[in-house]
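Input record (one chain):
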Amino acid sequence: MNETNPMRGIMIEKVTANIGIGASGDRLDNAKELLEKLTGAKVVLTRAKKRNPVFKLKPGLEIGVKTNLRGPKAMAFLEKSLAAKKKALNASNFDKFGNFSFGIHEYIDFPGAKYDPKIGMMGFDVCVTLKRRGKRVSERRIKRSSVGKSHLISTEEGIEFAKSALGIKVE
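The corresponding structure, as predicted from the sequence alone:
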């Protein structure tokens, strides 16, 4: 890979933190409070898209919370999240576009978080989206165009970026 070309460099686009509760009520309010406390960012409620009578879900029912982080705030949150996982991930945590996700089973594993009996015990998911410069071409509204295959990030490139830039051990 030619590192002299700045367009080939991989960077973190965003870090998404998510807590799925599966029902509305007090647990959802507690999850919202917890995620705001951990990330320091405003959270939004996620809603059910489909009806599922087994889980008593109907479209539009609030069932979780999430937030997107970008820039230095995202890097700080990601460093703490990876510390909770002891900077070790599996290769199966990476998708075909190099993005990776992992879960933290209990929020008290997160550095600096203390147990709150009011909130109870719950975990959360962290999803990291990677990009290269020029990705906006495929997302803009005017003169949209596709990105070439050679410019897309592969799983191997995502793993290599995670190892070199973030110090993650991939098993």
